[in-house]
Design a protein that fits this description.
The protein is of the alpha/beta class and 510 residues long. It has three domains: 215 residues, Rossmann fold (3-Layer(aba) Sandwich), CATH 3.40.50; 92 residues, Rossmann fold (3-Layer(aba) Sandwich); 180 residues, Biosynthetic Threonine Deaminase, Domain 3 (Biosynthetic Threonine Deaminase, domain 3, 3-Layer(aba) Sandwich), CATH 3.40.1020. Helices cover 41% and strands 21% of the residues. It has 20 helices and 18 strands. Strand 7, helix 9 and strand 8 form a beta-alpha-beta unit.
């Protein structure tokens, strides 16, 4: 006999520690995708994640005898904090087994909430196995992160709030989107909504490299993945729960898969509307809602995305910012071949027009042509294809690298190398570093001022959203032109430094 999840959700005990999180319209994102994207803000919970709900409901349901002995879990993430805080609130011992590789910030967060941290093993599987041993030897109760009816019911209270809160918004709900790792949230939300409002679609969202639930439902049995991608670490689960699989198979309408770029774009979308920074797994539902609306050509529908967590590692922000524009297809990356002659850069930039150049990498190749790696801000994919066409027509062979993973992850940082030919025939290469105010047209102004006839042999520029643009430029300047070159530097008016004797330049680029 299966549990009655409607009854279990209605009776779930979560509000001693959890809050009823708001349902917020994402105005900017909604305008852009042509549908109302409404965020269920689970990132605002006391532990910045929905995991608190299930953990507390499970621990609160224990008998006094079990409560007295304490609980244990294996987790390096949001579940660990949820269990620690819940146990502290209920006056119960909590042992949290974490892999030895867990970042210090997460260990400290668990300890500050009263959890006893045990570091064991190099992976989650090793930590989990050790937790199972401790459960038996110390007679503790295991609090599973997802595969437990009490945990599932606790997460299902998210759906109870959504249905109650949405009455204040206009129009019916078309679909609710939930991230899937082990499946606890999606199972609880779907089981509740489908009992009361079966016409509302419940859509799970996974990453392409951690799609255990989608594969399991397709095959009719649970599939164990050999490996999973770790960017969205909160949903990086190789083997979904038995009960969560049963519920998701029965109640989910679909599972959407998204990639890393789409996740980064969703993090940026939510930040622009709320000024909150979600963790990758926390933004999965938003990425899924956007992709589902695109696939099904939806217009003016109400789509609710559960923003499930905000425990973001700070050091990931640079990567997220780098990839967000790709995920939204608002940055295009090209390899363009330019003739190696004065004025070629200026003409090339005139074809780019008023679009913002986000990146410009080049190193001297041959006496006849230059290969440039360039990033350009565009409105959408159509505009980038149009730009490729325009460059080709004007005699600039162009390769579109926007979807090329190797180019985006590696090649962009490796454009360079030695170019001995730049110093042939009495020429010398001068290497200068420049700073200029980061504003539209600054890069074009720089190249216009520099049109004195000196050949550019190296160029590196990347817009990082700072107040100053930073450019490294190599120029072939004949010895007799040095007075003219100094005059150019004075007239340009940009801060500059001569790096021609820099040892790093001599080692890697000279």
């Amino acid at each position: 006999m299966h549990p009655d999840y409607l009854e279990k959700v209605l009776n779930a005990q979560v509000y001693d520690v959890a809050i009823e999180t708001p349902l917020d319209l994402a105005c900017n994102l909604s305008a852009r995708v042509g549908n109302k994207i409404i965020l269920k803000r689970e990132d605002m919970q006391p532990v910045f994640s929905f995991k608190l709900r299930g953990a507390y409901n499970k621990i609160a349901s224990l008998s006094p005898e079990k409560m007295k002995r304490g609980v244990i879990c294996a987790s390096a993430g949001n579940h660990a904090q949820g269990v620690a805080l819940s146990a502290k609130k209920l006056g119960c011992r909590a042992v949290i087994v974490m892999p030895t590789s867990t970042p210090g910030i997460k260990i400290d967060a668990v300890r500050s909430r009263g959890g006893e941290v045990v570091l064991h093993g190099d992976s989650f599987d090793e930590a989990y196995a050790h937790a199972v041993e401790l459960e038996k030897t110390e007679k503790l109760t295991f609090v599973h992160p997802f595969d437990d009816p009490e945990v599932i019911a606790g997460q299902g209270t998210v759906a109870m709030e959504i249905l109650r809160q949405h009455s204040r918004h206009n129009g019916p709900i078309t679909a609710v989107f939930c991230a899937i790792g082990g499946g606890g949230l999606a199972a609880g939300v779907a089981a509740y909504i489908k009992r009361l409002r079966p016409e509302i679609k419940v859509i799970g969202v996974e990453t392409f490299d951690a799609d255990a639930m989608k594969q399991s439902i397709a095959k009719g049995h649970r599939v164990r993945l050999d490996q999973v991608g770790l960017f969205a670490d909160g949903t990086a689960v190789k083997f979904v729960g038995e009960e969560t699989f049963r519920l998701c198979k029965e109640y989910l309408d679909d599972i959407i898969l998204v990639d890393t770029d789409a996740i980064c774009a969703a993090i940026k979308d939510v930040f622009e509307d709320t000024r909150s920074i979600l963790e990758p797994a926390g933004s999965l539902a938003v990425a899924g809602a956007k992709e589902y609306a695109r696939q099904h050509k939806l217009k003016d529908k109400n789509l609710i995305a559960v923003t499930s967590g905000a425990n973001m590692n700070f050091d990931r922000l640079r990567f997220v910012a780098e990839r967000a524009e790709f995920g939204e297809q608002r940055e295009a990356v090209f390899a363009v071949t330019l003739p190696e002659k004065p004025g070629a850069y200026k003409k090339f930039l005139s074809l780019i027009g008023k679009r913002n150049v986000t990146e410009f990498n080049y190193r001297y190749h041959t006496a006849s042509e230059a290969h440039v790696f360039v990033g350009v801000q565009v409105a959408d994919r159509k505009e980038s294809l149009k730009l490729v066409d325009s460059l080709q027509k004007h005699g600039y062979p162009t390769l579109d690298l926007t979807d090329d993973e190797m180019a985006k992850n590696h090649i962009r940082h490796m454009v360079g190398g030695h170019a001995p030919a730049v110093c042939e025939k009495g020429m010398r290469e001068l290497l200068y570093r420049f700073e200029f105010p980061e504003r539209p047209g600054a890069l074009m102004n720089f190249l216009t001022q520099m049109s004195a006839g000196w050949n550019i042999s190296l160029f590196h520029y990347r817009n990082h959203g700072a107040d100053y643009g930073r450019v490294l430029v190599g120029m072939q300047v004949p010895p007799g032109d040095m007075d003219q070159f100094k005059e150019f530097l004075t007239n340009l008016g940009y801060a500059h430094w001569d790096e021609s004797q820099n040892p790093a330049y001599k080692l890697f680029l000279g």
